[in-house]
Design goal:
The chain has 84 residues and is mostly helical. The protein is 58% helix and 0% strand.
Length: 84
């Protein structure tokens, strides 16, 4: 359980420290204790959860579109030339 670090753990740490290094005054005590988008403990998890949800939704949409394509009529083989 604690032996091998997971990729999501590294991604979480990387995104947190990237936000702290890029956002102006994000590592001040005032920004870290208030509830708002300047707080890294609020902004990063919400962003990661939104991205994860959109990724899952796109996966479902791709699966739906891949399986909902045109179907061959039973008893008639599909031909590429357009002639039956």
């Amino acid at each position: 359980m604690f032996g091998i670090p997971r990729p999501a753990t590294f991604y979480g740490f990387a995104s947190t420290f990237a936000y702290l290094s890029v956002a102006p005054a994000a590592s001040t005590m005032g920004a870290l204790t208030m509830f708002g988008w300047n707080n890294v403990l609020v902004a990063v998890p919400i962003s990661l959860l939104t991205g994860t949800g959109l990724g899952i939704m796109h996966g479902w949409l791709a699966k739906f579109l891949a399986t909902a394509g045109p179907k061959a009529v039973p008893g008639h083989p599909a031909r590429l030339g357009g002639k039956s």
